[in-house]
Write a structure and sequence with these properties.
The protein is α+β, with helices and mostly antiparallel strands and 203 residues long. It has four helices and eight strands, in the order ααβββαβββαββ.
Length: 203
Amino acid sequence: MIKIFVFPIALVVILIFILGFVFGQSVDLGWGLPLGTSLALFIACLGFFVTLYSSLLSRRHNRLLVKPHLIFDSMFDSSYREDHHTYTLKVKNVGLGPAIIEKYKISLNQVGELNHHSVFEELLKMVNKNTQANGRAYCVAGYLHRDDAIDKGNEKILIQVSFPADGRSFMEGREMAKELVKMIDSSITYKCHYGTTHGGKEI
């Protein structure tokens, strides 16, 4: 709220200064500017600053119209694949404009930062070790590269794991999925079309 009023206050101060300067030049220094000329100069300056202020407001408004906002969206269900429990981690753009990826980081089970090749391999290891799937799990590992874009309203699967139910109840499978989530460390830094950086969004 403070930022909104800073520019109008500065505008008023500048206009008062210009009016005083014009008046001073007309009277004190003997320039002898006619009143009409002084007023015309003042009105011209006023018009310039009003235009400048309107341009600033328009630019701020345009930035808001294209501001992206990424969120992590987690979902667990037992209907996606028969006799399996499925956990899905997505990133979704719920903002007003496209999100342009600057940096995507992901680590699984405290392994160092992974790339688009190694993330799938580590996901398989983590799932088979912690769900007793023994190679029967279905895994999907997405990746966000620099300069990838996620449009408004769109989403992308980052991780999807379907492991055999093996007689477990829905709640038991959900608790197992929760343990998997604790092993995921991920963050996204992104920007809008104006180049303003957002993020460090983490899970």
